Automatic annotation (TrEMBL):
It comes from Planobispora takensis. It holds the Pfam family Methyltransf_25. InterPro entries: Methyltransf_25, SAM-dependent_MTases_sf. This is Methyltransferase domain-containing protein. Residues 41-136 form the Methyltransferase domain. GO terms for molecular function: methyltransferase activity. The lineage of its organism: Bacteria, Bacillati, Actinomycetota, Actinomycetes, Streptosporangiales.
Length: 184
């Protein structure tokens, strides 16, 4: 059994919601300011959907989708979506970031928060993100600042030629930056 299943999944959901609230609030403000009116956002590695729930409250015009490998986390997320009466605005699916169940060019922004360190194939995930993004749209990845980004940088160079990868240290929970954000 993985850490994200059953009672462990419920405990993780409660802890993550509390500990990541500040980080998600900051990311939501940034996303809200970057996505065009009526735009579509994909949260890759959404867990139980807390980022999307916050974003839905800030920007009621957005179409929001989330994917995660864990059936239990998606189940918990769907429950949160129902409880918030946001089923018509937030769609959650069990899927691998390396094989997204979405058509080409459908999203104005792909965001991923604290999941890259779980990806087996960063290069395949970046290729999928490039496929589902509209031309010129951005990819934002947030993870712990100590996670190696060599494979991410190589994949970005291949799939987003000529576009730089910007790294920003993010303070959200503690006085020192625990997280880093990568914008492509």
């Amino acid at each position: 059994m993985s850490y994200f299943e059953g009672r462990s999944g419920e405990r993780y959901d409660r802890r993550a919601a509390r500990l990541n609230r500040g980080l998600f609030r900051r990311i939501c403000r940034d996303v809200a300011g970057a996505v065009p009116r009526g735009g579509a956002v994909l949260d890759a590695g959404t867990g139980s959907g807390h980022l999307l729930l916050q974003l839905a409250r800030i920007r009621p015009d957005l179409r929001l989708s989330g994917v995660d490998l864990s059936e239990d986390m998606i189940g918990i997320g769907r429950r949160h979506v129902r409880e918030a009466s946001l089923q018509d605005r937030i769609s959650l699916e069990v899927a691998d970031v390396a094989d997204l169940p979405h058509p080409d060019g459908g999203f104005d922004l792909v965001v991923s928060t604290l999941s890259m360190h779980h990806w087996d194939r960063v290069d395949r995930a970046v290729a999928e993100f490039a496929r589902v993004l509209k031309p010129g749209a951005e990819l934002w990845i947030y993870d712990f600042r100590f996670v190696s980004t060599r494979t991410l940088a190589a994949a970005v160079q291949e799939r987003f030629p000529g576009r730089p990868m910007r790294r920003t240290l993010v303070r959200a929970l503690l006085p020192f930056p625990v997280f880093a954000g990568y914008a492509i």
